[in-house]
């Protein structure tokens, strides 16, 4: 999953979902797991690990984590 497209991923910094504000944080540092993102329900936060990922993968990961929040709420 190396970067071939250097365009900035089109994901919001935060958004409202059923009265809650969900923050989106991009972490450009390498992580020690195979995860591209995680939904942190208690923190109302989506964390995206962006190191070496194409912007389309980052956008897909955001959508994936958003669905987790939809199911959670």
Summarize the structure.
By secondary structure, this protein is α+β, with helices and mostly antiparallel strands.
Q: Overview of this structure, please?
A:
- This protein is an alpha+beta fold.
- Helices cover 25% and strands 29% of the residues.
- The protein has a four-stranded mixed beta sheet, covered by helices on one side.
- Mean pLDDT is 88; it is low at 1-5.
Which key phrases capture this entry?
73 residues, alpha+beta
List the helices and strands and how they pair.
Layout: E1 14-17, E2 20-27, E3 37-40, E4 45-49, H1 55-72
Parallel strand pairs: 2-4
Antiparallel strand pairs: 1-2, 3-4
Quick one: biggest sheet? 4 strands, mixed
Class inferred from helices and paired strands: alpha+beta
Number of strands: 4
Helix content: 10-25%
Helix/strand order, N-terminal first: EEEEH
Radius of gyration: 12 Å
Intertermini distance: 31 Å
Number of helices: 1
Query: Which shape, going by the Cα principal axes?
Result: globular
Could you tell me the mean pLDDT?
Answer: 88
Strand content is 25-35%
């Amino acid at each position: 999953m190396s970067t071939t497209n250097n365009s900035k991923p089109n994901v919001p910094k935060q958004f409202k979902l059923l009265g809650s504000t969900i923050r989106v944080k991009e972490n450009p540092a390498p992580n020690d797991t195979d995860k591209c993102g995680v939904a942190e329900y208690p923190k109302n936060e989506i964390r995206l690990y962006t190191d070496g990922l194409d912007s389309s993968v980052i956008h897909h990961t955001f959508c994936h984590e958003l669905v987790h929040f939809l199911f959670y709420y």
